[in-house]
Amino acid sequence: MKGLILSGGKGTRLRPITHTAAKQLVPVANKPILFYAIEALRAAGIEEIGIIVGETHQEVREAVGDGSRWKASVTYIQQEAPLGLAHAVKIAEDFMAGDSFVMYLGDNLIRGGITDFVRQFEDSRPDAMVLLAKVPNPSQFGVAELDGDGRIHRLEEKPARPRSDLALVGVYLFTGKIFGAVNAIKPSPRGELEITDAISHLIDERMTVLPHVITGWWKDTGKLSDMLEANRIMLDDLAGSAVEGNLLGDTQIQGRVVVGRGTVIENCTIRGPVVIGEDCRLARTFVGPYTSIGPSVTITGTEIEHSIVLAGSTIEELGGRIEGSLLGKNVEVRRHQALPRAYHLMLGDNSQVGIP
Prior knowledge:
By secondary structure, the chain is an alpha/beta fold. The protein has two domains: 2-232, Spore Coat Polysaccharide Biosynthesis Protein SpsA, Chain A; 238-355, Hexapeptide repeat proteins (UDP N-Acetylglucosamine Acyltransferase, domain 1, 3 Solenoid), CATH 2.160.10. Helix content is 20%, strand content 34%. The protein has eight helices and 33 strands. Strands 5-4-1-6-11-8-12 form a seven-stranded mixed beta sheet, sandwiched between helices. The protein is elongated and about 70 Å long. The model has no long low-confidence stretch (mean pLDDT 88).
């Protein structure tokens, strides 16, 4: 069995961050989202992984390499444009070479992994299996309706009147029969080959399509609020503290906190769960729960919590609080005059902000 991770797309809902970076490489708990997908496939015993890439292919290639750090073999498959999930499957046919495979959307996070999903597929041997989860707002997702035998009877993409509360999570398992389906369907009104249409074709051809309903947490990290929630959940999984940097002055570490090598923290209070990367400089700062700070970040005279700060950014002497925010790489935020108490920021890479 092989794996197929989708890491193309434009990431429009996370702009301006994704103007200059692949959305699948935005870090959650200081680890790129894409890496969680690779780890999930490897935990399920999958060693051969194809990654669909688009405009940001060079950045993805540099971050992932040949896959050897995960003891995997990675092959890159270039998609000319974001033409739909079924199109991504279509162009991966040569790589699959007749093998069954897991398709994993690279901006999804699933707590607990997909090992049970894969094992169920291997045991029951359907033509396809779809990962589902109950959601309170099914009209925002692809929705599955089950028949009396527990098989998938119908799929609808973002229906106005959903027939169930079971949403497609973004992980699928297919045999080679899916290639006949993706070659048989036509583009949707939005000009894409929809994976829901391909699976519906399998159903129409009386193929066996089974559901696997998860009960744990999952998240499509396409929006700022989803990124922050994913960061919170992943930080909640921290097993304990690991401080490799230098703590100076009256610095207090409370709760589960990870601090990378080369980082200097002086006269700060860090209240976990928090992750701080390597070679950071923090002084006279309060870092509150559910904050991830990337490498080479400088923060002085500031309060920050429930936020993500990417590599190389600088936050100086705000005096007030940053919360619920995502700052891109090499962002500069500095105090000029008096500040309001809280800020809600989403800043793209290389931004510079002066706040009066």
